[in-house]
Amino acid sequence: MEGTAxxxxxxxxxxxxxxxPILDERGTRIIVCCGxxxxxxxxxxxxxxxxxAERGRRVVVLTIDPARRLAQSMGxxxxxxxxxxxxxxKGSDGGELHAMMLDMKRTFDEIVEAHADPARARAILExxxxxxxxxxxxxxxxxxxxxxxxxxxxxxxxxxxxxDTPPSRSALDFLDAPKRLGSFLDGKFIKLLMAPAKVxxxxxxxxxxxxxxxxxxxxGKLLGGQFLGDVQTFVAAMDTMFGGFRTRADATYRLLQAxxxxxxxxxxxxxxxxxxxxxxxxxxxxxxxxxAGLVLNRVHGxxxxxxxxxxxxxxxxxxxxxxxxxxxxxxxxxxxxxxxxSEPSHHATAADSSARPSAAPEAAPTADVTEExxxxxxxxxxxxxxxxxxxxxxxxxxxVLAREQRTRDRFTALHPEVAVTExxxxxxxxxxxxxxxxxxxxxxxxxxxx
Length: 450
Fold this sequence. Notes:
alpha/beta, 53% helix, eight-stranded mixed beta sheet
């Protein structure tokens, strides 16, 4: 039914997601907030970081959100590839919060500098193809997020790392990126480009030319000779590092599968977001990765959920069409207009009668009722219109609640084993630590405080 209150039925059949035990468990070392774009992953990750730090954890939040909302909400001018301490945290037992925003290119540069001798590293960093690859190759951002996670975990400086996954078209990109980059490095194109370096000299260039002639003419025209030369130089310099990329990706993948990791799937109560969440839940299960539960963000509620949408609409129509039985005096006899009938009007009120206890109806005076009794028909009409408008707004809100509940219940019916918490929508954006604390409290309260 359209007017059913959100929160009934479906949530009772699934376990409640309890956030504080996850944050307090010292064995939990990594929390990954994942989900499709625009569902509140960054705010959720930041709120979890604040709450965990104020409960005694040494936390670093890694965000990949280019909108820089995390820095602003934490009172930091800007975040970069280096973790920065957040002031204003009311931590106990040494709790601290650091935050950083992934710099994809800088992370790639750090990998090169750490795994190549200075001369080779300089050649790679100055290579035009490398500069393009490190700044925007498809999947590079997700792969570098995995690399940075591995680096942070290896430092062992924090006892909890919270990852805000990239705002990708698909939440699955974060898990797929290492394999995609590995496939690129192992692909026929790269192997073809590596061959000239191994053959060497003119024979090598001849081999390159023969190999490239095997590709389509269109591709050759698009790439151009200079570009191919840059790629071949890059591949020659990176040859010894390719295995390291795959090794580290595999190590980080195993780290994500370990018991100390908890995945939180973040979604909004919308069809597409929950469909993406369902895919991700299934993928995590297939990969043997530990899912903590679903955070359902921005759930709407109502303080008058007992008033159904149908009743609210009907009441609004009655007000707008003047059919309410207790509307008070009508237009007859108002504004100084005399009554023309010798019979009592059906609009007469008790106030009218008490003001003229001995007067016959035909002798009714023509005094202005507004002046005599303090009632203004225009005010009454304005109030009626306002009330009708509020009733229609409530009816629309109840339709939203019903739609969100149906969408959520479809997810819980498919995945009844997944713990769920709902987080009530806030009236405005979160822009400071106080707002992040409020989100943290909603996350930790029963059913998210929805």
